Amino acid sequence: MNPPKPSDAIPEAALPRLARYLRKLEQLEEEGLETVSSRRLADAVGTNPAQIRKDLSYFGGFGTRGVGYDTHLLVKELRRRLGLDRERRVIIIGAGKLGTALALYRGFAKQGFRLAAMFDADPRVVGSDRGAGPVLSIDELEDFLSAHEVHIAIITTPAEAAQEVIDRVAAAGVPAVLNFAPVRAVAGPGVALRQVDLSTELITLSFYLAGD
Amino acid sequence: MNPPKPSDAIPEAALPRLARYLRKLEQLEEEGLETVSSRRLADAVGTNPAQIRKDLSYFGGFGTRGVGYDTHLLVKELRRRLGLDRERRVIIIGAGKLGTALALYRGFAKQGFRLAAMFDADPRVVGSDRGAGPVLSIDELEDFLSAHEVHIAIITTPAEAAQEVIDRVAAAGVPAVLNFAPVRAVAGPGVALRQVDLSTELITLSFYLAGD
Question: What is the pTM of this model?
């Protein structure tokens, strides 16, 4: 990860937990719960109250001792600080099975991520509808990016194509890249790059089975 | 994560890095490199030599000062300690787009993970071939698991079906679960459960864009 602006006080390690708290708090808010204790939130997400209080201390001022957190205010502030209070336009490059699965993934839309376009290099795929409108040709990438603001590019190309595509979206000013291609890609300064490596997850599980 | 056997000295946080070193070392070994310095490995994976030496200190005895690590021995020991020196049989439950994408993902086979079967609840999907042989009915899950040893179950069902399916594979003795369904699932003691939450990755990127 090379964050373009690491000035914020929230450590990156806390982000997956904060995202999880947010989803649970939104659910509790929908159910009409006006305040929530750190104990209740901890039980709901499978952690302990001390961890909750520590993580939420970055947001300060929403908890009242013996009462709990104001659910609505905490949801609002979490969404603002995580950048989820505005629409994020996303493109997916690589309209294969994984790209299509991501295009159809309901969790994205729920958090304000809007799919602006999908791209592919295969002429047999270009023009087809993978559930998010017609797939554009990769040749149109730069034209599209100069006409539309895009916040995040998701890369689901084959491994050998990923780095070139990342270089192209970075050169066109896309500030964040999520790479699913099974290759360690790099991005220049000013571009936030995250790598999702599916085989690493299986290797981690394999490690816990290694004593068999 | 609730590791069934946390006795090993390698900390879980080091596993994604070790998996990355392994992939790079295997590549260097294929290219005929007999020894590799911590500097060279660090440059290749985008970290610093001190981190490499610290992570590889769990494996001890493969480095020679001024010469480097014996590539072949280090690859062998990493594979053994990560449990990658034996075949791991995997099932995928949920033969939708994500499940199919994972079934076809080349990185799995390369690390010794073998897909034993796919399952789905939809009668229109059962019997079709998603690239890994005919999809079995979820009704056959317990029979299959009593006849075949399975090490890891990958869950790509809709959110609302995930917990029940995890309970079923755990009851049938599958020791590890990788859950892609967008829901926080739980598993009893003795079952290693990892959660891959795709929207958390986007939220992390969104956070770095939050200053826009």
Answer: 0.73
